[in-house]
Amino acid sequence: MTKVSTGNTEPRLPWAGKQVRMEDVEETLAQLWHLSADNVRIGQNIRVRTSVLNFVICAPNLAAAQHASAGLRNLGSTHIGRVILLILNPDPGAPPGVSTWVTLRSFPIVSDMMRHTFEQVTVLLSGSAASAADTILQPLFKPDLPVYLWWLQDVPTDNPLFHHLANSSSRVIVDSHGFFQPEASLMQLAQISRALRDSALSDLNWSRITHWRQLVAQFFDVPAYQRYLEGVFRIEVEHSVLPTDSAEDTQPARSPIAGATVNATRALLLAAWLKTSLNWHIDPSHPDNYRDPETGAYTWHTLHRTGPLHFIPTEETAEGLYPEPVISHSGEGTIFVRPRVQPGLPPGSICLVRLSSTVDGKLATFTVNRTDDREHALTVVTLPEGASPPRTVPIPGTQPAIDLLHEELEIIGRDHLYEDTLQEVYQLLSEI
After folding, report:
1. Residue 285 carries which DSSP code?
2. Which residues share a beta bridge with 171?
3. Over the range 241-261, which residues count as b (16 or more CB within 10 Å of their CB) and which as e?
4. Which CA distances in Å does 302 have to 273, 324, 339?
5. Residue 225 sits in the same domain as residue 367
6. pLDDT tens-digit map of 135-166
7. Same domain for 266 and 378?
8. Which terminus, N or C, of the chain has the lesser number of Cβ atoms within 10 Å?
9. Cα–Cα distance measured from residue 324 to residue 235, given in angstroms and rounded to the nearest whole number
10. Would residue 419 count as lying in a domain?
11. Each residue of 277-286: pLDDT tens digit?
12. 141 and 219, same structural domain?
């Protein structure tokens, strides 16, 4: 039987609801549902209750847990049947203990007259109990429902807890924007993802670069520009960083789940996606390959055969097989990821993407450059005969995690493109 401590060291979490023993969770929730039903009969509002999935949020501390709990008010997903907010006490000297709180949460669907209601169970594990989190949580899952895990911290390299929780989940969601050690966490995430055969993997930061990927792809929707794909030889991606001489008191207050002040994760994902799309291969022996995670600056030199992204032959060979794609140009290329100081942008935001190409000895560039207005970017195509008029396009700033999370909870299948791109990032970081 799990005991609830009554000493002075027991934390008080008024936002988490009523504190109960773990074996009393189901009974207490049933009582809360009865009270809720009585309130509905007395009032004139409608309560909607669904049971589609168990949603586990794993927080590294109380501040991050409270921030995530408050954000659930704006989540707006009617798929959640039960939220389990798992808090891990980071103090290795803390005595082993399990503390549990329960409450019902609701938010309006159409209007305040119709509200979706779900259960929230908050579990605080300290000491050695934290290492057994996957076992402790099992009785709290609503049976026969998938488990979605939202991991609110860096991916540990020396702790099997993440691996155990991920293996028991249908979907694992991280936000690399909040990593304090972006490189190490990405590398570890890539390694773990290979072993997650039954668990889909998502990164909210991947969603944040969707608009940038679309804008780059739209350049080559224009038939006159498609031939320049054959001659791309340079990729440049810039990401925002804070000024090195800025005083801390001049910076806006940071979220409890904000990550490192230099975080090139989005730029690395975008560079890896472009590298794969162009079928480039890193030259690991090139002496000018460069990697500086402290500043977020990287350079890779490539050996590649460039050409159309897809080749569909019109005739079959005598053996009935399609021939190999005809590549029109061979050469070397370079990928640059660089930091850029741009006031008003959170660290890690994409500032610029530029592709440079040569065809018939003539240079062309395709640029998406974020303006001082953080919600817009300029797209410019510079051809040998001159530059096109700049086009202003809307582009989101750093979207709040809770907004992106709503979309992730609607997804059932795997995002194979993201998982493949994550492995490409691993290869990029391993080559230098």
Report:
1. T
2. 148, 200
3. bbeeeeeeeeeeeebbbbbbb
4. 14, 22, 21
5. yes
6. 999 999 999 999 999 999 999 988 888 999 99
7. yes
8. N
9. 26
10. no
11. 999 999 999 9
12. no
Is the pTM value of this prediction over 0.90? Answer: no
| Strand pairing category for 114-126 and 147-151 | unpaired
> Are residues 215 and 193 located together in one domain of the fold?
no
In one-letter notation, the amino acid at residue 83 is V
Q: How many domains does the chain have?
A: 2
- Report residue 323's pLDDT band, with 50, 70 and 90 as the boundaries: very low
pLDDT above 60 (res 176):
yes
Is the Cα torsion angle 109, 115, 116, 122 positive or negative in sign? Answer: positive
Q: Locate tokens 């668990």: which residue?
A: 199
Q: How far apart are CA 250 and CA 253, in angstroms?
A: 9
The whole-number pLDDT of residue 5 equals: 46
Residue 414 has pLDDT above 60, yes or no: yes
The pLDDT, as a whole number, for residue 18 is: 95
The DSSP code sequence of 195-217 is H-TT-EEEEHHHHHTHHHHHHHH
DSSP H helices in 204-288 = 204-208, 210-219, 265-277
Same domain, 262 and 114: no
68 by Cβ neighbours in 10 Å (0-12 / 13-18 / 19+) ranks as buried
